[in-house]
Design goal:
single chain, alpha/beta, three-stranded mixed beta sheet, binds S-adenosylmethionine
């Protein structure tokens, strides 16, 4: 995932996004990102934004929102020339809060190994769609697991290697999220923003998002407004003590400075909670996973133990533990 990285130039960030993230997934955004990486008009527009607001996902989603359809380089240039102020305001007001329900498939086998019942605390929970791993149904290469909600979407994930596939979803007795800016899938504006963050060419993700959002409206998960470090112990204290407290996160720590990631790790350990992470290689400071930038995210436990490598959008899971 390309988060904010001040050591990388904006042009390089777009090149990397096109070649490593969009390639093979969204040809339209691959072309667009590579086009932006050499386009003076767009790069100048981006350089006038704070560094954390220059990300490809944010620019493309905001342009999609204003244009009503995914941008290409021509329509993006025209938007900047004609409505650059509006685009800038939207990028300053919103952030990349992609909430991908299928990341629950990446975490489910690790959750299934823990003593039940579970108390789930997800930091960076966005709209809370990844707070419902027990409610979704799963298909791990033909191994089906029925979720607690019969109308849930089925999350399809190809297992690779000896994935410890559970026979059922875990018993969850408490759940809560923390996010700097919780989104509400009952709010048309928030839901539309989540849809704009999905890339062209990924219609299956859009369908999944809509079904997951409908499910979350039936069982609204509570997401507290707060910071993953400073509000962690306050929210964790609400969990029932008899349950196994699991603090977890997906695609979040790349947005947090390294020192704060370390402090967060220490805070989770101090709680005595189980810590599951699902992040890009290199994001967890003490996790040794070879050179950063390899394919997929790393699912780890305790900040140091690699369990699996997985698709950032949960479509495959390779067990390594
Ligand atoms: C890319 S989204 C991922 C959402 C969800 N975890 C998922 O996997 O679908 C990252 C989320 O982390 C949140 N976030 C970033 N920094 C945070 C912080 N310091 N404290 C709490 N939430 C944070 C953002 O607001 C955003 O909703």
């Amino acid at each position: 995932m390309v988060g904010h990285d001040s050591t990388v130039s904006t042009a390089e960030n777009y090149r990397r996004f096109g070649r490593q993230e969009a390639a093979g997934r969204s040809p339209a955004y691959e072309r667009l990102a590579l086009g932006v990486s050499t386009d003076r008009l767009v790069l100048t527009f981006l350089r006038r934004l704070p560094p954390a607001k220059r990300q490809p996902n944010l620019l493309f989603a905001a342009a999609r929102r204003l244009l009503g359809s995914p941008p290409d380089l021509d329509s993006l240039r025209a938007l900047i020339a004609g409505r650059g102020g509006e685009l800038r305001s939207l990028m300053l007001a919103r952030s990349t809060q992609t909430n991908e329900p299928a990341r629950c498939a990446s975490l489910l086998p690790a959750l299934g190994l823990l003593p039940e019942p579970l108390a789930l605390l997800e930091v960076g929970a966005a709209a809370g769609l990844t707070l419902l791993p027990d409610a979704y149904s799963y298909d791990f290469g033909g191994h089906r697991i029925a979720g607690a909600d019969p109308d849930s979407p089925i999350l399809r994930c190809l297992p690779i290697g000896p994935v410890p596939l559970p026979g059922r979803t875990p018993e969850v007795v408490w759940r809560a999220g923390i996010d700097l800016n919780p989104l509400n899938v009952g709010d048309a504006d928030d839901l539309d923003w989540l849809r704009c963050l999905i890339w062209p060419g990924e219609a299956d993700r859009d369908r999944r998002l809509q079904r997951a959002a409908a499910m979350a409206r039936r069982h609204p998960p509570q997401v507290h407004r707060g910071d993953l470090l400073t509000d962690l112990s306050r929210v964790a204290a609400l969990a029932p003590p008899e349950a196994t407290l699991v603090v977890y996160h997906s695609a979040v720590l790349a947005y947090v400075p390294e020192q704060k990631r370390r402090e967060f790790g220490a805070a989770v350990r101090a709680l005595g909670a189980v810590w599951l992470s699902n992040e890009a290689p290199g994001v967890l400071p003490d996790l040794s996973v070879g050179p950063p930038g390899g394919a997929g995210f790393i699912v780890a436990e305790g900040g140091t133990r690699v369990l699996a490598r997985t698709d950032p959008h949960g479509t495959w899971l390779e067990w390594l533990a």
